[in-house]
Automatic annotation (TrEMBL):
PANTHER family: TRYPTOPHAN--TRNA LIGASE, MITOCHONDRIAL. This is Tryptophan--tRNA ligase. It comes from Sporolactobacillus laevolacticus DSM 442. It is found in: Cytoplasm. CDD domains: TrpRS_core. One of its GO terms (molecular function) is ATP binding.
Length: 328
């Protein structure tokens, strides 16, 4: 039995990329493992947010976690800011981190480029993420490919701490799916699809209407070769749609390429959209039943209580190891 931890930011509505790269695996990993899933709202505020929107997004994300198959009887679901140990261990992990290694993180570079005033939290995001994971003695972290670098840093920080102060943390491994770990933007298919992309047409949100999904896929950037084949380098748009189609239909990319020999991009895109709608519709139906129910608050209250009990033990051990407070 492995201990699993992962989180999603309430920066907007989860995208098809978040679902195919990470959230879909959250549900399947529940079988035979101890899973803890988090709404990482403290991470969300590393870039400016409208408070009302964050609040609404937190509720929607909670409902989506359940709609995507998280079973609160099996797994813990909670909000990061409701378990103060995250911020507390986050500070400790900042003290273990070096400026140089934080400045080298791709996400920091991507999200800070072109900004006049860069929030310090954007730089110290990875030590907080390390704390999230390490508090639960996590073995496996299901994430998309973009988080691999942060996971490597988490491992480095945990090893650095353990070597210096004694064995407090389990060293986690990433769990990155072989396909779907990097779903690309529909508008610029050399860039990853992101929840917070300003161009809403570049992203399929898991709560998009059927009409919007069709419209977005129809206008996805492709190429003028008019042949459907998998070539990430030269045909990033078509290759991305093939990955999405394959993951949403259960048919292999090779099978799809063979089936669409000699067919036009128009027909292909119509069928990709149909497969995406087929995957998202049942999730949206469950979401609609959950969003107004009182079940959400009960699940989140219970989740925070259970998460706190585990997290507090690790935090106390880390503080003891460092000699801070009166734990010793
Ligand atoms: P933001 O733009 O606000 O950072 P995001 O789309 O990157 O949003 P996160 O909440 O940061 O979403 O990430 C949630 C999970 O989804 C992480 O495990 C991340 O690796 C994964 N993920 C994010 N984007 C993609 C993508 N394009 N393809 C596959 N997985 C992804
Ligand atoms: Mg992200």
């Amino acid at each position: 039995m492995a201990k699993i931890f992962s989180g999603v930011q309430p920066t907007s509505i989860p995208t098809l990329g978040n679902y195919l790269g990470a959230m879909r695996n959250f549900a399947t990993l529940q079988e035979g493992n101890e899973c803890i899933y988090c709404i990482v709202d403290e991470h969300a505020i590393t870039v400016p947010q409208d408070p009302k929107e964050v609040q609404a997004n937190i509720h929607k994300l909670a409902a989506l976690y359940l709609a995507m198959g998280i079973d609160p009887k099996q797994s813990i679901l909670f909000i990061q800011s409701e378990v103060p140990c995250h911020a507390q261990l986050g500070w400790i992990m900042q003290c273990v981190s070096y400026m140089g290694e934080l400045e080298r993180m791709t996400q920091f570079k991507d999200k800070s480029t072109g900004k006049q005033a860069i929030p310090a939290g954007l730089l110290t995001y990875p030590p907080l993420m390390a704390a999230d994971i390490l508090l639960y003695q996590t073995n496996l972290v299901p994430v998309g490919a973009d988080q691999k670098q942060h996971l490597e840093l988490t491992r480095d920080l945990a090893e650095r701490f353990n070597n210096k102060y004694g064995e407090v943390f389990t060293i986690p491994e990433p769990y990155i799916p072989p396909v779907g770990a990097r779903i690309m933007s529909l508008a610029e298919p050399t860039k990853k699809m992101s929840k917070s992309d300003a161009n809403r047409k570049a992203t399929i949100f898991t709560l998009d209407s059927e009409k919007d999904i069709i419209k977005k896929i129809k206008s996805a950037t492709t190429d003028d070769e008019a042949s459907i084949r998998y070539d990430r380098e030269n045909k990033p748009g078509i290759s991305n749609l093939l990955d999405i189609f394959s993951l949403c239909s259960g048919r292999s990319v090779d099978e799809l390429v063979a089936a669409y020999q000699g067919k036009g991009y128009g027909e292909f895109k119509t069928d990709v959209a149909e497969a995406v709608v087929g995957i998202l519709k049942p999730i949206q139906e469950k979401f609609n039943n959950l969003i107004e129910s009182s079940e959400l608050d009960e699940v989140l209250d219970e989740g925070a209580e259970k998460a706190y009990a585990i997290a507090k033990r690790t935090l106390t051990n880390a503080e003891k190891a460092l000699g801070i407070g009166r734990n010793n």
